[in-house]
Write a structure and sequence with these properties.
Keywords: Disulfide bond, EGF-like domain, Membrane, Repeat, Transmembrane, Transmembrane helix
CATH superfamily of one domain: Laminin
CATH architecture of one domain: Ribbon
CATH topology of one domain: Laminin
Number of strands: 14
InterPro entries: EGF (IPR000742), EGF-like_Ca-bd_dom (IPR001881), EGF-type_Asp/Asn_hydroxyl_site (IPR000152), EGF_Ca-bd_CS (IPR018097), NOTCH1_EGF-like (IPR049883), Notch_Cell-Fate_Det (IPR051022)
Shape: elongated
CATH class of one domain: Mainly Beta
GO molecular function: calcium ion binding
Helix content: 10-25%
Largest sheet: 2 strands, antiparallel
Protein name: Crumbs protein
Amino acid sequence: MNECQNNGICKKEESPFCECPLGFKGHLCEQNIDDCLDNGNQQKCQHGGQCIDGINEFTCNCTDTGYTGDDCSIDIDECFDLNIQCGHRGECKNIPGSFICKCEKGYCGHLCDLNNPCLPENPCNNGGFCQEHCTDVIVYECQCANGYVGQNCTELPIIHNYADIALIVGPILLILLIGGMGSLLVLLMMARKKRATRGTYSPSCQEYCNPRVELDNVLKPPPEERLI
């Protein structure tokens, strides 16, 4: 009974063995050889092509790679072979595996079919530089200057560096502390002065200048009434 698989031929010699057809290996020819790999276990399809293994053969699916050929090694000139048209008088330029459209001023996008958001007016304020990143949608980025942040460079940054905060707040607190200590010292001196004068007699100006009282100014007692 022939136990060799996949149409292998059994060789009945001193040590019987299976002679495998092309594309198979193993003691009983039970293993399909992966023809997508070369002797160094490297994929035979290049530039990301999908390899499909067969019986003693392989095929490469080069879809969306920008390349063609049996092993996806031939670059496709999209501008010529696919007749890519860049909008608004844009110029199509072939690059390995793809293409780019060099757009006229005022337009952007993969096919130059979008309006450049940075022109004619710069949306970035306070000296910011506008950089468009259009592909299939309008996108731009502001590279802000003069310490501004935000999508359109309209916001001042929040200080997160505690050392910078200390440099700003420290002198203010020191001034307030000195002012508070000065006010407290003045209040203490006023209270001390008030306490020193409390409970003492301070003569009036008239008493100080005329210490003696004139006898004429002293009220005389009324005369005694006669008894009838």
